[in-house]
Amino acid sequence: MKITLSHLTKKFPARGRKGKAAAEVVAVNDFTFEIPDGSLVGLLGPSGCGKSTTLNLICGLQKPTEGQIFFGEEDVTTLSPQQRGVGMVFQNYALYPHLNVEQNIRFPLENLKGAEKLSKEEMRSRVEEAASLVQLDGLLERKPAELSGGQQQRVAIARALVKLPRVLLLDEPLSNLDARLRLQTREEIRRIQKKTGITTLFVTHDQDEAMSISDLIVVMQEGVVQQIGKPQEVYDDPANLFVAKFLGTPPINLFTGTVKDGALYIGEETVLQVKGVPDQPVQVGIRPEGFLVSETGTFTCALSRPEVLGRDISILASHPCSVNPNVRAIVDAESCEHLSGDTVRFLLKSQKVLLFEQTTGSRIPFESGR
Amino acid sequence: MENKSIKGWLYLLPALLFLGAFMIYPLIDVFIYSFEEGYNSASQTFYDIGGYNYSYVLHDAYFLQALKNTFILVVITVPLSTGLALLISVALSSIKPLRELFQTIYFLPYVTNTLAVGLVFMILFKKTPYSDGLVNLLIHCFGGSSVDFIDGPYWAKMFVLCFYTVWVVMPFKILILTSALAGVNPVYYQAASVDGTRRFRMFYKITLPMISPMLFYLVITGFIGAFKAYSDAVALFGTNLNAAGMNTIVGYVYDMLYRDSGGYPSYASAAAIILFVIVLTITCINLLVSKKHVHYQ
Q: Domain coordinates of chain A in residue numbers?
């Protein structure tokens, strides 16, 4: 099912005592987007950016202030959640504690009425089907309190899938799990989504989560969509400083620099040729993997210490023009053998260097040439 | 190890002493009195030991009347007050404006003195040479003939007693239930509404099981409280309850202890033990039923 959001806006009324002027909160601002059929989309942003509100709008738990939502060609903006046919997995799973796993999964089926009403046998087979899809066989008699976090999560997914929804929505599906389970579960979500082919939208503040399993990611900030695209594209080609900073672990290194006569200066050094950029002060973002240690390098930093990560080495350094106290470069272990002294010299990979406008933070494209 | 358990018992000692002196000993004493025939508290003497006290009490018309009254009161008021309290709490928790005002109003009867409330009920229901009472005025408005609720027919008096009891016990139940309802995580309702659950089913399948421990607590204490009813009846019908035919079991025990020059402690003890057995039985039945229907988390 293709989902189309058209100028979706949600405003919350101002909270405050009478007479006190308080601006209304715009949680989602003019969101227009088409989610392709059968894709897995990650809504990504810091907390309070409006991603959960967007999910609730699509779910139907909240009504948009303006704009429309289409499932396929059907306008569902005014429909209630059950009329939309959505399955939702809540952040804390919202499993009914007094019902066992089977009763929890069966709960949505028992709500069906009229022509959709199912017989006992049909319900049983649907529940078993959903349970085996999420690999819960043998746990059907347990109460939610007797399950691990990961198992509860799977029950919640099974309960959302059992009524064969047109759209599956997951609100921070992994945030309540420990690190190891998180890796496992995100693969699980990917597998279930590919197997069922249901268009799926999930919300997360963890960029690793979003990047690793999504077909598309949507980066939001303060209710405004910053960028939509495939994870790799958004990472390599961020639209602005916010997106560049938000994606990537370790985070991007930021410097203040200037462009003069087609060359990029950080401090006194010319670090890169940038063609087609007018002379101006800029913010320079360099991905940690954009550094090459070289004797002939043009970018000199004060070496703090190398951190051995096994496969790679992370070099911690500092530079007077750096926005953050530390500059972090990730380089091959071999290239660090001749690392000594107080300074380290780098060559920069031009495709890993990003320029942003000093004030607005929007991206400045450039052609590299040397 | 040995040392530690001695220490533990020492800590328990004050509580055990008080409980022993003021609860366990009287209980045993009452049990013994109930088998001592013709016990006289002044001379501390009795004629014989046996079951005569029980047989007397169980054949006493006043006791049977009190038993009947108490059972009717329990059977009517406990389900009615709990059900009404649930209804009002659900209504209260689904409105936003004026909720606190309503909560305060509903809680007022709880902090009002029983006898003051009894007086108000007199004004509502009592027939005097000057007035028929407010309720009778209303009945006249709808074309009925006036009823004497205080000195009139049995069903009218029982109606007033039940009405009064429900009205008095409800505030506490509403207080407990509104806080229980507020304790249910709203995400369950969201999840249920995404799944297209109808309101009644949501209430029946989610709300009720979630608040069932509190509901159960109210039913148990409600049963026990109603079985021990006495002061309410006094407030409405005066101290001579036997004459009014509105006595309760506790009222009967009280009368036996203090009425008629020194009273009959043996009969009172027997009646008290009978009441104890009844309450114990009902509570055990409650506990058994609750195993299946109450969900502790």
A: 3-246, 253-368
Q: How far apart are CA A368 and CA A349, in angstroms?
A: 10
Domain A3-246 has CATH 3.40.50.300: yes
Q: How do residues A98-145 score in pLDDT, each as one tens digit?
A: 999 999 999 999 888 877 788 889 899 999 988 988 888 888 999 999
Contact A167, A200 (CB under 8 A): yes
Question: pTM score > 0.90 for this model?
Answer: no
**Closest alpha carbon within chain A to B211:** A98
**Which domains, and CATH codes, for chain B?**
51-293 (1.10.3720.10)
Helix ranges (DSSP H) in chain B: 2-19, 25-33, 52-59, 61-93, 99-111, 114-125, 134-141, 154-182, 186-194, 199-202, 208-227, 231-237, 241-244, 249-258, 265-293
Report ipTM (2 d.p.). Answer: 0.80
Contact list in B for residue A60 (CB cut-off 8 A) is 194
Dump pLDDT digits (tens) for A257-316.
999 888 899 888 888 888 888 889 999 999 999 998 888 888 888 888 888 877 788 888
Two tokens at A82?
Answer: 């059950």
End-to-end CA distance of chain B: 34
Q: Are B217 and B176 in contact (CB under 8 A)?
A: yes
- Chain B residues 38-77 with CB within 8 Å of chain A: none
The backbone torsions φ and ψ at residue B20, rounded to the nearest 5 degrees and listed phi first, read: -65, -45
Test B297 with A97 for CB contact under 8 angstroms. Answer: yes
Q: How far is B209 from chain A (nearest CA, A)?
A: 7
**Which backbone phi and psi does A59 adopt, to 5 degrees?**
-70, -35
State residue A18's pLDDT score: 57
Q: Which of residues 120-149 of A touch B (CB under 8 A)?
A: 145
Query: For B67-76, how does the pLDDT look when each residue is reduced to its tens digit (9 = 90+)?
Result: 999 999 999 9
Helices (H) and strands (E) in chain A, counts: 9, 22
Please indicate whether, in this complex, the C-beta atoms of B187 and A86 are within 8 angstroms of each other.
no
* A 30-89 → B contacts, CB under 8 A: 59-61, 80-83, 86-88
DSSP 3-state of B62: helix
**Tokens linked to B26:** 């009287």
Name residue A86's beta-bridge partners: A167
